Amino acid sequence: MLGNLNHVALVVSDLKLACQSWQNLLGATVSEPQALPEHGVTVVFIDLPNTRIELLEPLGDGSPVSRFLEKHTGGGMHHICMNVEDILLARDELIAKGARILGDGEPRIGAHGNPVLFMHPGDFHGTLIELEEVKPVN
Ligand SMILES: CC[C@H](C(=O)O)C(=O)SCCNC(=O)CCNC(=O)[C@H](O)C(C)(C)COP(=O)(O)OP(=O)(O)OC[C@H]1O[C@@H](n2cnc3c(N)ncnc32)[C@H](O)[C@@H]1OP(=O)(O)O
Ligand SMILES: [Co+2]
């Protein structure tokens, strides 16, 4: 089922300051901030040779990362995202095996314009997992 690591997501309390740290200390190239009100976050991506880092800041009331930030003052690692070729097939297989899909169970469009789903961290030993549908190029 699993493809490449798509991104590792870090929640930060101040996106502008976090971008400056990654740029100035690590020489990272940081994308322009993208507001995703439907997901309650503002996001930037940092491209690495083999994957991406996603920096997340809460956006609006009821952001899914607000409570995380309250518990982890200053921020921290929030989720990992892996590619799947067919997200509905992956979802149905996971449900059949007893795993819980967050939200209403339907994929939503993520930051890259692809369908995404989140799995309950309780089913993965305390790690929040995102799956993103990425079709193979050939
Ligand atoms: C899609 C756009 C973009 C992209 O990549 O394209 C993004 O990635 S947006 C990312 C933000 N969106 C989400 O995270 C959506 C899925 N998340 C959720 O639905 C919630 O955050 C949820 C259910 C994981 C937690 O909700 P909430 O914080 O309101 O609940 P609790 O604080 O009560 O937490 C319940 C339980 O889960 C543990 N928890 C929470 N967050 C994490 C985490 N990031 N990693 C590991 N575990 C986490 C929390 O500690 C609680 O555990 P418990 O044992 O019950 O105390
Ligand atoms: Co993500």
From TrEMBL:
One of its GO terms (biological process) is L-methylmalonyl-CoA metabolic process. It comes from the Bacteria. InterPro entries: Glyas_Bleomycin-R_OHBP_Dase, MeMalonyl-CoA_epimerase, MMCE/EMCE_epimerase, VOC_core. Its EC number is 5.1.99.1. It is an enzyme of class 5 (isomerase). GO terms for molecular function: metal ion binding; methylmalonyl-CoA epimerase activity. It catalyses: (R)-methylmalonyl-CoA = (S)-methylmalonyl-CoA. Keywords: Cobalt, Isomerase, Metal-binding. Residues 4-134 form the VOC domain. Belongs to the methylmalonyl-CoA epimerase family. This is methylmalonyl-CoA epimerase.
